[in-house]
Each structure stands twice: as structure tokens, then as C-alpha cells.
Write a structure and sequence with these properties.
The chain contains eleven helices and twelve strands. It has 331 residues and is of the alpha/beta class. A hairpin with a 5-residue loop joins strand 11 and strand 12. Helix 5 packs across helix 6 and helix 5 runs parallel beside helix 7.
Length: 331
């Protein structure tokens, strides 16, 4: 891939808001998220469970359950086109072809009564108008690509281990060579050894196919190994974003520093890790000021009235904080 192609921005989200209905309550899942992604780049979305990461991902493909969504607005721009303004026919041309997704749980992503080659071939037929035999040959090629022998193509999901199921899901997502791959915690259900193998596989295939990627995870080690840029999510907002070097070498938001502080350090002899005290805020409650205020070790009176005005630390590094942590101050 040429440098010119890699430096051209082709995907953007602008002021994304998503709210769910839950009985008589409203769940404020995503609140004003914006970011850009250039061709060939990988962005890591990092945060605790419930921060809104998966909602952002599913919003991109408009696959959130309609009965549960109260509000979904903003702009999702793919190659200059707003996905939110596309009709069903236009969406079907993009889903699985231009933009594809690796879902979090391979147990529920695969149909238990269909052979794996049929499931991989299904999307390929949809987007390439080819014969079943041609699509199944493509399915066998994809299985070989992800490290599964083609002679197992006719087997069912229950005949595969957890790690192999995840490889099948990856093969399904990459069968049409998408330009953008969304990977939603693709290794959460796997043991450590298989995690490493799957992550290496995703990284290798991304590089070989020139695919851009949005990787959703709560594992900073995974981000360090794969991503070019990082966006830290808290309470449905990106509270710190930048290049990998910006965020890993110069974390500035108290929450980001807390995440790094909770990681084990083999160079230090400590009896206990340093967790972030407290729990994430209730997404059904709208409060004034910074959502991280109750848990923040650096809070001040200004935080109670904070209106989420972004602070630009450099051309690539930004935070949502009125009392950022000074370099070297710690959590």
C-alpha cells in the first residue's frame, strides 16, 4: 500500500449519539463520539465493560435492535457517504463486503445447523453473484488462510474448538476482502495461548490485505501490539485519544492513568494492584459535570460544572478533562 493511500482519511464518525429504551428509562449509551480513521490504520477502542464500545461498532453497520433504540444520530461517513442516510439496498452492498465485523462470541456468531463452508460462502455469493461451487472454493481458501485445513470445511461448528470457531468467524469476516474490519473483543472467550495465535493471525491478515481496522478491547496489551491509534472510552465518550505513543507514553486523563496503574508490573514488588476505585456511572442517569468525578483522584470543584470541552494537547492528542494530570504526576 502506498504512503499516499495510507494517509488518506476514508472513514469518520461525527457526533454519534445512541440512546436505548429500557422500560420507562432511557439508557445514554453513546454521547457525542467523533473520530477519523485513515486507510490502512488500526484504531483501538479501550474501556471498561458497558462504556459503549460495542454500541459504537454496531452503529457503524446499523445492526442495533430497532425495538430497543430510542435515538441514534450523528454521521458515519464511509468514503464520503453517510451510512445513516443509506437505504436498505445500499446498506446490503456495504455490510460484509466493504465493512465487516468479527463478533465477540463465536458460539453465537455461527449457525449450529449449517456447515462452516456454507456460512463463509453465503456472504461471498451475496456480494459476488457467483456460483455455489465458486463460493465454496473461496470458503476453503479462507479456512486455509486462517490455519484450518480445507478438508474440515464440511464440518459443523460444534466439531471445532473455541479457538477454531473464532478462526471461522474471522474467515467469514474477511471472505470478501473488506476495506474496514471491526473486531469486537475477538479473543475474550479464548485461553491465553489461543488469544496470542488469533491476534497474530488478525494482524498478519490485516497487513496482507491492507485492511483498516477498529479493534474493541479492554486489554491494553492487545492495543500495544496491534493498534496505530487509541481512543479511551468512558461513559459513552472518548475521554482521551491519540497515537499509540501519545496515549501509552504520555497518558494525561486521570482515567487513562488509572487504567495503566491497574496493570501488573513485573519490575515492581507489590502485594496488590492499584484498581480504579468505584464503579462506572449509571447510564440511565444524566448528571452535571464530569462522569468520572466520583472516582477521580484529581477531581476539583471545576469538574462539577465541566461541559466536556476538548483540550488539544498536540496535533494528535486530545482529552476531555478540565484538570488534566501533569506529566509524571501519576494517578
Amino acid at each position: 500500500m502506498s504512503e499516499k493511500t495510507k494517509n488518506s482519511a476514508f472513514f469518520s464518525i461525527r457526533d454519534l449519539n445512541v440512546q436505548y429504551k429500557s422500560g420507562e428509562q432511557t439508557v445514554y449509551a453513546v454521547n457525542g463520539v467523533s473520530f477519523d480513521l485513515k486507510a490502512g490504520e488500526t484504531l483501538g477502542l479501550v474501556g471498561e465493560t458497558g462504556a459503549g464500545k460495542t454500541t459504537i461498532a454496531k452503529s457503524i453497520l446499523r445492526i442495533l435492535p430497532e425495538h430497543a433504540v430510542k435515538r441514534m444520530d450523528g454521521e458515519v461517513l464511509y468514503e464520503g457517504q453517510d451510512i445513516f442516510k443509506m437505504n436498505d439496498t445500499e446498506l446490503r452492498k456495504i455490510r460484509g463486503h466493504q465493512i465487516s465485523m468479527i463478533f465477540q462470541d463465536p458460539m453465537t456468531a455461527l449457525n449450529p445447523v449449517k456447515r462452516v463452508n456454507e456460512q463463509i460462502a453465503e456472504g461471498y455469493i451475496q456480494h459476488h453473484n457467483c456460483s455455489k461451487a465458486e463460493a465454496e472454493r473461496r470458503a476453503e481458501e479462507m479456512l486455509e488462510l486462517v490455519g484450518i485445513s480445507a478438508d474440515r470445511a464440511g464440518e459443523y461448528p460444534h466439531q471445532f474448538s473455541g479457538g477454531m470457531k473464532q478462526r471461522v468467524v474471522i474467515a467469514m469476516a474477511l471472505a470478501c476482502s473488506p476495506k474496514l474490519l471491526i473486531a469486537d473483543e475477538p479473543t475474550t472467550a479464548l485461553d491465553v495461548t489461543i488469544q496470542a495465535q488469533v491476534l497474530d493471525l488478525i494482524k498478519r491478515l490485516r497487513d496482507e490485505l491492507g485492511t483498516s481496522m477498529i479493534l474493541i478491547t479492554h486489554d491494553l496489551g492487545v492495543v500495544a501490539g496491534i493498534c496505530d491509534k487509541v481512543a479511551v472510552i468512558y461513559a459513552g465518550r472518548i475521554i482521551e485519544s491519540g497515537t499509540k505513543a501519545d496515549v501509552f507514553k504520555h497518558p494525561t486523563h486521570p482515567y487513562t492513568i488509572g487504567l495503566f496503574g491497574a496493570l501488573p508490573d513485573l519490575k515492581k514488588d507489590v502485594e496488590r494492584l492499584s484498581p480504579i476505585e468505584g464503579l462506572p456511572p449509571d447510564p440511565t442517569q444524566v448528571t452535571e459535570g464530569c462522569a468520572f468525578y466520583p472516582r477521580c483522584a484529581h477531581r476539583c470543584d471545576k469538574c462539577k460544572q465541566y461541559q466536556y470541552e476538548p483540550t488539544q494537547l498536540s496535533d494528535t492528542h486530545a482529552i476531555l478533562c478540565c484538570n488534566p494530570v501533569k506529566e509524571g504526576a501519576g494517578a
